[in-house]
Amino acid sequence: MNGIQVKSKILGNAKKSLKRHWQLYLLVIPPVLYFLIFKYIPMFNSVIAFKDYSVVKGIWGSEWVGFKHFEMFFNNPQFWILIKNTFFLSLYALAVGFPIPIILALCLNEIRNGMFKKTVQLVTYAPYFISTVIIVSMLTLMFSPRLGIVNQLFGTLGLESIDFLGLPGMFRDIYVWSDVWQHAGYSAIIYLAALSGVDPSQYEAAKVDGATRLQKIFYIDIPSIMPVATIILILSVGNIMALGFEKVFLLQNPLNLSTSEVISTYVYKIGLLNANFSFATAVGLFNSIINLVLLVAVNATSKKISKNGLW
Amino acid sequence: MFSHKNKIKESIADRFFLTGVYLFLTILLVVVLYPLIYIVSASISSPEAVSSGKVWLFPVDLSFKGYEVIFSNSQIITGYLNSLFYTSFGTLISVTLTVLIAYPLSRKTFFGRNFLMFFIVFTMLFYGGLIPTYLVVQSLGMVDTRWALMIPNAIAVWQVIIARTFFQTSIPDELVEASEMDGCSDFRFLWSVVLPLAKPIIAVLVLMYAVGQWNAYFDALIYLKNPDLHPLQLVLRNIIILNTGTGGMDASEMMERQQLADLMKYALIVAASLPVMLIYPFVQRHFVKGMMIGSVKG
Predict the structure, then answer these.
(1) B157 and B282 fall within a common domain
(2) The whole model's pTM is what?
(3) ipTM attached to this prediction
(4) A with B: how many residue pairs have Cβ under 8 Å apart?
(5) Under an 8 A CB cutoff, do B218 and A246 touch?
(6) Domains of chain A, with CATH numbers?
(7) Which residues cross the membrane (chain B) (predicted)?
(8) What residues of chain A score a pLDDT lower than 50?
(9) Which structural domain, as residue segments, surrounds residue B102?
């Protein structure tokens, strides 16, 4: 068959499918419109990063200014601070948040006792359901310099009270460890699912060979969760610059700003609070592009090393 | 199965290791549980007991003053009612839209499903940005209306993937073909065959969207200026996080008021998490199922 024939055959199939299943195509119209309007139009709206957006002239009527806003951002003294803060916070969150759920799942998998295992799972899973606002509220109350339980404990031990949330040096630790507290149990589930799929005969064979529990973990458990772990790692690296805005924003205060100002909070402040739409869009676009590049690069590397990738 | 055998044969190294595992998990259990218990205890203790550090695990001088304060505050009541509204209607919209796209995507006879899938997944990889999205919502006249919280983030791509995987694995092709032979239309098939079979996945979708909607705060922050429309989370943020005492109050009356204000914050945290936490033990199973369905590569 030559190209034209193939093409006409595909078109023929499409026509047949459309005629027979027109109702299916009708069903997808509302969701497709949703994606077009709220996801794709904003992508095209990003052109205002290359324009001087004016409310009166609209998106397409505003004047082109090329890379002016990007240059402004790169020359801004804030630029390196923002990059550094975003990058370090994400990397720290990744370094801690990626292995802990795996360790938790491996430990839970070792336990056959039903009650204890169920209790640990039920409890560690629960914080996932608490909202970010409440997590941050709990942190502010418990770490409050005057009445918080932590500083009261410090008081009884004869130590000076510390304003944890106001210390720039503590910001990353608080952010990352409270995140682990909230998400480790939830993230462990996906690994537990992978572990439950391991063929029991492998364990039995290992037992016959006299393997210890630790050896079973290293030679059976870890290899069998590798594919899932790789995917999750790729996704998290791809999101390295797209840090959870909500929590950073809520934990921020004038005192810890030197480590807590990240790209997304900066975009919010410049864009929506100061109405500097074009500049903020340029910053956001720069962020999205770095994300995409990281994702593609990590995916390619992973495919080369482990034959495992997102696509 | 071979657990009793294990007990006999367990080597010293293994026993040592297992003890370590139990120890680690017990510590973890305490660390996760402690803040939760503390918050609840503090919320039902007397203001003086909380501020003088007498409460460290169990409630001291039982008192429900904090709850009295929050349930006489009109701002909090409004927030609660608004959140109930957003959660119920928002979830309805989200689940409907998700099923509408996930079901056709699961059908092999749907031409262009790979393209459509890419069309959706791409939005996970590349985000238009905060300001460009805001401009769209604004031009639709949704700013400062209830729609802003229910429409612009109605569909989560991850939930579409989960639902599609479920439809693919649990609705056999033979069933579609057989009903087609009988002259059943796609609408009718979806309504009277697929949906009844899809109850487990619909339960998962409802739960995930409802929890997300109940806990959401960011959209309200950017799109809503009118305080009458604010959801509970935004009210919480304004009261607890923005209102943190800056210290320097020495008058005793101020002190008392400050104590009560702090107590109210603990009560508020409990009251806002209660709906989700009460249903949590019953729904945990479904969430685990949802995660597992989603993890099956489709």
Answers:
(1) yes
(2) 0.87
(3) 0.86
(4) 270
(5) yes
(6) 2-49 (no CATH), 67-306 (1.10.3720.10)
(7) 21-44, 84-103, 115-135, 147-167, 188-211, 263-283
(8) none
(9) 65-296
